[in-house]
Write a structure and sequence with these properties.
The complex is a heterodimer of chains A (about 270) and B (about 300). Chain A is mainly alpha-helical. Chain A is about 55% helix and about 10% strand. In chain A, strand 3 and strand 4 form a beta hairpin. The mean pLDDT of chain A is about 95. The longest helix of chain B is centred in the C-terminal third of the chain and has 19 residues. Chain B has ten helices and ten strands. The N terminus and C terminus of chain B are likely disordered. In chain B, helix 2 links the parallel strand 1 and strand 2. Helices cover about 40% and strands about 15% of the residues of chain B. In chain B, the strands form two sheets. Chain B has an eight-stranded parallel β-barrel with strand order 1-2-3-4-5-6-7-10, surrounded by four helices. A two-stranded antiparallel sheet of chain B has the order 8-9. Classes of the chains: A mainly alpha (about 270), B alpha/beta (about 300).
Chain lengths: ~270, ~300
């Protein structure tokens, strides 16, 4: 028998990968010709163990990462998502933790899911919560740190976002849908909003959290996290609310700052 | 790193009877005092930027010896070694100082794709040369001997130059790598491919084996799938007994990855492994668990 060369090993791996990923008949037949007959079962059935395991393993990863979306859509529709995503985005990551990272984009541009924008919004929320869970650690600027800082210097304070912070803008009532699912309640009918719903995802202690923000609080936080001083953030908030006819006074801005510190959203700017 | 220096390294100490660390058991481990001697972690689960997984791992490592077990090194792939992955693996190892680092004798994908499975290779001389050269490189990067596990497999290739056990033995001999003998995988392979599991055990060099895995599987009659979602069956415990006779007391742990029961149930299963080891070595004193037990031949 001719010795098996490394080039053959390469070919075998390419064929086996193609057979597993695509269930491609030609690749599968080529591969089957290189296999020993199985001891007690059909060799093709034994090869199918790998093909089935590939799809079910990736589907399981998606289901774990998108538990709310899977509950929202039900098994049948969610299976459409998993099979479509597995085809469109074969895993190119060593760590399965990041396999789902393209799912929100995939849902936003792939029919029929692209016609239901709350689906991509829900996926965005779930991925943000997962990212917050194991985002890098950093020492937060706490409420204690704030109170230890002379109040007359607060206007000049500058911060960065804690690495777990994600600021999202939902185009739909995905937050209400997500909350209903989280509480085991019937989700409300989907609504496309006239204005984006600002959302905040972060990790407090070890727990990922999600809440809504008013437009004024969202603007202030965004300005602050972009590197501006607290005074600049206050001015931006005042302008925003001024257009709406109500005003954000300094007390409200300070209350928000205190809350951001308590929630460990902020770290000291370098 | 001097390659010759690594080859001469002795086996690590016997750690006792351990479990795979799973998030479902974090509370029971941290708030209880379970009879577990050590933990094996899935390396990739902790190759994350921060947060709870690493925080808990830092706490557990102050109480228990840890071993790192990876699933995506892809040592037998024909695609280049992923140096970024190896660097991350080394970073985690520097942080938690595991007793050893293991992965599988398998490939997980080519051309940048990861199939997230442990796929078998044909056991040929060319494949052996290829894997040996990659093990040498990995051992240099990680600055320690690599430990490699035999995988469960459902297919085998025509035109092989040697058996799986001959391949593993030659790999250990040529690279100085250690072996993690998965007793369940030997059982699964024996059932699926029709070989004698005792012949497998008897062919593996005694000094190379640093760890045993025990796990459950799904029995379909004509074939067996390595699912890690069932209790360990009697046949696998019998094979474990034979492995103890062959290799002496080797650090033993149970892998449970799906359908995970409460910690107490897995600890009870681990106690069964302890009891078998006590019978084989005629002792129940943990203090006497050393590598100096006489190694008896399997009849």
């Amino acid at each position: 028998m001719t010795p098996v060369k490394l080039s053959d090993l390469n070919l075998i791996q390419e064929r086996m990968q193609a057979a597993i990923m695509n269930a491609n008949e030609a690749d599968r037949q080529d591969l089957l010709r290189t296999l020993k007959p199985a001891a007690h079962a059909a060799t093709a059935d034994m090869l199918a163990i790998y093909t089935n395991a590939y799809r079910s393993r990736l589907a399981e990863i998606l289901e774990d990462d998108l538990q709310s979306l899977s509950r929202y859509l039900g098994d049948e529709l969610f299976a459409h998502i998993t099979s479509g995503y597995i085809e469109a985005h074969p895993s190119d990551v060593r760590n399965a933790r990041w396999f789902s990272r393209h799912i929100a984009d995939f849902l936003a541009r792939t029919p029929p899911f692209s016609r239901w924008p709350q689906v991509a919004d829900l996926a965005t929320i779930e991925l943000a919560l997962a990212d917050a869970f194991d985002a890098p650690d950093a020492k937060p600027f706490t409420l204690q740190d704030l109170t230890a800082t002379p109040a007359e210097t607060w206007a000049h304070l500058k911060f960065q976002a804690h690495p777990s912070v994600r600021r999202l803008n939902a185009t739909t009532n995905a937050y209400d849908i997500w909350s209903a699912i989280a509480h085991g309640a019937e989700p409300p009918p989907p609504v496309v909003l006239d204005h984006h719903q600002p959302l905040l995802v972060w990790r407090q202690d070890a727990t990922p959290k999600l809440r809504t923000l008013s437009p004024a609080e969202a603007l202030g936080l965004d300005v602050l996290l972009a590197g501006a001083s607290f005074a600049d953030a206050c001015q931006a908030m005042a302008r925003e609310t001024g257009e709406c006819g109500s005003s954000i006074d300094a007390n409200q801005a300070v209350a928000w700052l205190a809350n951001w510190c308590t929630s460990t959203l902020l770290i000291t700017a370098p | 790193m001097n390659r010759q220096h690594m080859i001469g390294q002795t086996r690590p100490d016997f750690l006792g009877f351990g479990l795979g660390l799973r998030p479902q058991h974090y509370d029971a481990i941290l708030n209880g005092d379970p009879a577990i001697d050590w933990f094996e972690i899935i390396s990739e689960n902790y190759m994350v930027p921060g947060g709870q997984p690493l925080r808990i791992l830092d706490e557990i490592r102050t109480r228990y010896p840890l071993v790192m077990h990876g699933v995506s090194m892809s040592i037998a792939s024909t695609s280049p070694l992923d140096l970024a992955y190896l660097s991350e693996l080394k970073t985690l190892a520097d942080r938690i100082e595991p007793r050893w680092i293991s992965d599988h004798l398998c490939w997980t994908g080519v051309h940048g794709v990861n199939l997230h499975d442990l796929l078998p290779i044909p056991y040929t001389n060319a494949a052996l040369d290829h894997v040996c050269s990659r093990v040498h490189k990995v051992q240099e990067i990680l600055a320690r001997p690599l430990t490699l596990e035999n995988v469960s497999s459902y297919i085998a290739f025509e035109g092989e130059d040697m058996s799986e056990w001959e391949f593993l033995s030659a790999l250990a001999r040529r690279t100085g790598c250690h072996l993690l003998l998965d007793v369940n995988n030997v059982y699964v392979g024996a059932r699926n491919h029709g070989y004698d599991p005792i012949a497998f055990l008897n062919a593996i060099p005694r000094d190379a084996v640093v760890q045993f895995h025990l796990a459950g599987h799904e029995d379909h009659g004509d074939y067996v799938i390595d699912t890690h979602d069932h209790d360990i069956c009697d046949d696998v415990f019998d094979l474990y007994r034979a492995a103890l006779h062959r290799f002496g007391l080797v650090s033993t742990m149970i892998e449970r990855d799906d359908n995970i029961p409460p910690l107490a149930d897995v600890v009870a299963e681990l106690d069964r492994a302890r009891a078998i080891a006590s019978q084989v070595f005629k002792t129940d004193s943990p203090a006497e668990r050393t590598m100096s037990y006489p190694q008896t031949e399997v009849a």
